[in-house]
Amino acid sequence: MVSAPAPGGARAVARCQALGVAPYSDMAGGLYRGYLTPAYRAAQDTLSGWMAEAGMQVSLDPAANLVGRYEGTDPAAPLLLIGSHLDSVRDGGCYDGPLGVMLGIEAVDALHRAGRRLPFAIEVIAFGDEEGSRFPAAMLTSRAVAGTLPAEALDLVDGEGVALARAGVDVARFRTAARAPGSVMAYLEAHIEQGPLLESEGLAVGTVTGIAAQLRFRVHLAGMAGHAGTTTMPLRRDALAGAAEMIVAIERIAQADASDVVATVGRIAAAPGAANVIAGSVDFTLDVRSGDGARRDRVAHAILSAMEATAGRRGLALSIEQVHDLPASPCDPALVALVDAAMVKAGQPVRRLVSGAGHDAMVMAALCPTAMVFIRCRGGISHNPAEHVEPADAEVALAVMLGFIDQLGASRGLA
Ligand code: HGY
Ligand code: MN
Ligand code: MN
């Protein structure tokens, strides 16, 4: 019987690994945990036990986020919210999201074992739908908590045709998960970097200064299905060839900007999808990001214009639906300084960096000041089963989080 790791970073890593396999995954041979799926509910059950062991009261909020609360000495004081997400991408890694939740539990467990109560409560939240991998929109449940979710955003259907309203939440109450303005003093998220910078500089952790702006679209292209053997090339309106020309143009336009702009087509489906039929229609996704919102919008505009020109030249019908628009989200400068100070206290060099990946923190910034701690991941690999974190790096991140927590009270005159 393998003994469970001692409390701390190693246990946080081990727990992420434990949740990376059945019954905590909805796919065989890999990890996919969709919002409200059986795997999601199984993971919440196990997480509830770990939160309770750490001295927290555990509950589900109206958006089916799991929340653990560790009381402070002043129940009326604005609380510190520590969190990340429990859902995953399809065939993803086990640390993207869960590591931030597990480290939040470890931080509370360390206070609980030391018998310490702070002047404010700490809540650890496991957001249910950051990736948008089951339902089309992303950051659904953190937007509910931040109070920025419009009612019409709940009119969602997943890839199997299951409506959110029939997936196990009460959509009539979903948005009551919103926290009262002023009730949350700060939001802290620890997350793997999902990029190669920390590793390239031999650093275990980094201070996030902001999160890139991202636009996401669903694209539908309609041409004319036809017989692959009898339809001559000049007569074709091939939706898949048109999509291919657009996808190469998307890459070329983003590369030509020679900036931090990134543009990605991550998913494509052609219909009817037969070897001897010219594709009559194609659906694909488009994701455009930059640390600068205006730069993101300029390049996105250039991409959409190029797509329209291609569609016109090829006689294809093009429809583009914007799925979400997440503005660039700076972390709070005062909290960034606290993270830096905690880095120094933990014996770490201070290294600030921007996040190209989106996080629940970018949504929570509408509710309260936010701070993020990045953790080195091997090769910067993420959204991939090869995602890997060293326990020692998780331990360093935990020390930084505990240092941050200690200073936060003092900085708010609550110590
Ligand atoms: O897409 C992202 O950046 C995040 O992993 N959801
Ligand atoms: Mn992710
Ligand atoms: Mn993530």
What key phrases describe this protein's structure?
single chain, 415 residues, alpha+beta, Aminopeptidase, Alpha-Beta Plaits, 10 helices, 16 strands, binds (2S)-amino(hydroxy)ethanoic acid, binds manganese (II) ion
Describe this structure in words.
By secondary structure, the chain is an alpha+beta fold. The protein folds into two domains: 9-212 and 328-411, Zn peptidases (Aminopeptidase, 3-Layer(aba) Sandwich), CATH 3.40.630.10; 213-326, Alpha-Beta Plaits, CATH 3.30.70. Helix content is 32%, strand content 22%. It is built from ten helices and 16 strands. It has helices at residues 9-18, 38-53, 98-113, 140-146, 197-200, 239-256, 293-314, 333-345, 360-364, 391-411; strands spanning 57-60, 66-70, 79-85, 122-127, 184-192, 205-211, 213-222, 226-227, 262-264, 268-271, 277-278, 281-290, 317-326, 329-330, 352-355, 370-375. Strands 1, 2, 3, 4, 5, 6, 14, 15 and 16 form a nine-stranded mixed sheet that branches. Strands 7, 9, 10, 12 and 13 form a five-stranded antiparallel sheet that branches. It is globular and about 80 Å long. It starts with 8 loop residues before the first helix and ends with a helix. The relative contact order is 0.17. The model has no long low-confidence stretch (mean pLDDT 96). The structure holds (2S)-amino(hydroxy)ethanoic acid and manganese (II) ion (2 copies). Residues 89, 96, 131, 383 line the site of one manganese (II) ion.
